User: Which sequence fits this backbone?
């Protein structure tokens, strides 16, 4: 028999529930399921084919002494259970909803008790008997007794613990958290992607925007470490257990939640969980009109800050109380722009610029739209530097005229002053201001670390490593640059290989592998990885240039020059940095041609020139007096 007291397992179709371990598996693979929905499933499986009413679920699993909004808690548990079983309320395979009554397990249970021997939860309602499924596996009376005893005796301990705090998923706003024996100590937190429960995949931008806003609000609290958006988005629809996620991100608290949008109404369910134990600490449900969604976001951030007992400065407290005034249509355009910007590919960034501009056109005084536009231009690499950074500076300065407390605008302005104006003092001032406003801004830490490196500061790696702590799952490992420049190539390779486990199709990682293998003299491996980067990027100029440099270093002169011709043709269609071509000629030891292209780069204020002092950039030219003169004209420190 599949189910026995020894195995404590119940099967239905491809799924198997293990009552001893409290686990749900499909085809032998563990599926993430919190204890609350697990207990609901357990109760439904005890009575397959019968209606289990909401009242019965409440009595068994939501005792009156628990501070819980039962409706929200049950709805959340059923939602998570359906997600784990890959079904929907509209087309159920296992869990049927009977509106205003309860739920029924309609799947075939392998090892479940037959209808005639089950003791009912209650007397059946009139007309209810013929609602049961027509076919079910049959067991004898003794097997039925054993099955039910096993189901609840093994699950009982878990249920008892769960009742206290794990069953909690949402409480009505009362300023209270679940009763816990020990105080909450959360110093580092990750906001996992909020789930889109609208039933409309085109609303992903809106739900992601809510996640983004919550991260941004919490990130401005200096006493709290908040993981960046880039890293947490890796956990969208993940089945990983929360303790594992907490360990990977090095946090002790996790925020989970879901968003439902119906017309002009928005509802957000949020819960705070202790990462190491999967213990639910606090939850709440918020509902507002679309026009009040920014106030809703701020309220959630304040509640989380209160629950983790974060120390707030007067400025941080004031920020969490402030609310942007913007019409809903403008905010929707802004969220669409942010959603596209977060993808970071050229086409998405180009589209994000259009949406930011639409938001500005609709609301000319919306500072965040200008800040977003500035950030988009900073990473937009298919236009000439003069156009790119002039637009970025103009948008950033306009944002700061309206609101001087936007970290994103200060960071975008700093990047423009750094890479284009070569104004080291001005750039440092703006980076410091950005990080004062948002200490958890990983991108600003990364860029500021690069500025300090260019200026020859010994502590530049501190900022880069801090960026890595806040964005641990970013594509390029934070230590690669340090190992590469110090000649520790094997350590750099090790870091990149680990990242490839997360990002197996990232062209930047293969390009980095190609460059490092070339420095080790392993040209066969170098060329193979550089070629892969070109293939994955569909011929992006950045990776074509990298392949050409590898060809040149390995003695494949003809192949390198063919790519130079290809880049020259491409330069008539889009911007190609002259530094890319200069690097190829330098690797070919064509010194005069390399300096000719570097002179052109100087005239364009190419951002790549700020890295002239790096020991791994254009190293064949370092002994030429013209190189020192080039460094002087860029303004690099001696």
Assistant:
């Amino acid at each position: 028999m599949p189910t026995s007291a020894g195995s404590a397992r119940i099967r239905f179709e491809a799924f198997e529930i293990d009552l001893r371990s409290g686990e749900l598996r499909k085809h032998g693979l563990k599926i993430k399921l919190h204890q609350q929905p697990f207990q609901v499933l357990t109760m439904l499986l005890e009575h397959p084919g019968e209606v289990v009413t909401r009242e019965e679920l409440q009595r068994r699993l939501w005792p009156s002494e628990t501070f819980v909004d039962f409706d929200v808690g049950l709805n959340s548990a059923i939602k998570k259970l359906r997600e784990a079983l890959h079904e929907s309320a509209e087309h159920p395979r296992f869990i049927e909803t009977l509106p205003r009554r309860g739920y029924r397990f309609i799947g075939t249970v392998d090892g479940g008790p037959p209808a005639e021997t089950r003791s009912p939860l209650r007397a059946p309602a009139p007309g209810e008997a013929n609602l049961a499924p027509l076919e079910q596996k049959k067991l004898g009376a003794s097997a039925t007794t054993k099955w039910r005893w096993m189901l609840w005796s093994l699950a009982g301990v878990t249920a008892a613990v769960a009742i206290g705090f794990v069953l909690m998923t949402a409480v009505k706003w009362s300023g209270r958290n679940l009763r816990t024996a020990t105080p909450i100590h959360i110093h580092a937190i990750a906001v996992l992607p909020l789930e889109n429960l609208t039933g409309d995949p085109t609303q992903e931008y809106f739900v992601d925007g809510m996640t983004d806003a919550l991260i941004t609000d919490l990130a401005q609290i200096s006493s709290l470490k908040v993981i960046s958006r880039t890293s947490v988005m890796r956990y969208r629809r993940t089945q990983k257990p929360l303790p594992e996620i907490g360990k990977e991100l090095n946090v002790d608290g996790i925020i989970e939640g879901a968003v439902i949008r119906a017309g002009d109404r928005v509802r957000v369910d949020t819960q705070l969980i202790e990462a190491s134990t999967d213990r639910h600490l606090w939850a709440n449900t918020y509902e507002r009109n679309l026009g009040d969604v920014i106030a809703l976001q701020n309220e959630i951030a304040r509640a989380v800050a209160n629950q983790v007992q974060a120390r707030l400065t007067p400025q941080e407290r004031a920020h969490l109380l402030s609310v942007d005034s913007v019409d809903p249509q403008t905010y929707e355009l802004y969220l669409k722009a942010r959603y596209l910007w977060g993808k970071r590919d050229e086409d998405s960034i180009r589209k994000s610029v259009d949406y930011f501009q639409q938001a500005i056109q609709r609301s000319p005084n919306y500072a965040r739209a200008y800040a977003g536009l500035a950030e988009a231009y900073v990473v937009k690499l298919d236009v000439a530097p003069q156009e790119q950074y002039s637009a970025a500076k103009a948008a950033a300065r306009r944002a700061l005229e309206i609101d001087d407390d936007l970290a994103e605008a200060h960071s975008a302005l700093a990047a423009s002053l750094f890479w284009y104006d070569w104004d080291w003092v001005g750039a440092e001032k703006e980076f410091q201001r950005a990080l004062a406003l948002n200490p958890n801004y990983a991108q600003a830490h990364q860029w500021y670390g690069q500025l300090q490196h260019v200026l020859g500061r010994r502590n530049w790696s501190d900022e880069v490593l801090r960026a890595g702590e806040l964005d641990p799952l970013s594509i390029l490992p934070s230590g690669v640059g340090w190992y590469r420049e110090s000649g520790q190539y094997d350590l750099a390779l090790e870091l990149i290989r680990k990242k490839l486990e997360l990002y197996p199709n990232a062209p930047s990682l293969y390009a980095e592998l190609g460059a490092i293998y070339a420095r080790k003299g392993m040209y066969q491996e170098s060329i193979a990885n550089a070629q892969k980067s070109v293939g994955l990027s569909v011929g992006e100029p950045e990776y074509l240039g990298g392949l050409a440099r590898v060809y040149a270093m390995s003695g494949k002169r003809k192949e390198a020059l063919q790519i130079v011709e290809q880049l020259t043709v491409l330069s008539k269609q889009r911007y190609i940095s002259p530094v890319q071509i200069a690097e190829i000629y330098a690797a070919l030891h064509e010194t005069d041609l390399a300096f000719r292209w570097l002179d052109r780069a100087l005239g364009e204020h190419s951002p790549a020139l700020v890295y002239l002092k790096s020991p791994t950039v254009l190293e064949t030219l370092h002994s030429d007096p013209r190189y020192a003169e080039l460094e002087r004209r860029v303004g690099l420190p001696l």
Remarks:
- The chain is about 55% helix and 10% strand.
- The radius of gyration is 29 Å.
- The longest strand covers residues 279-289.
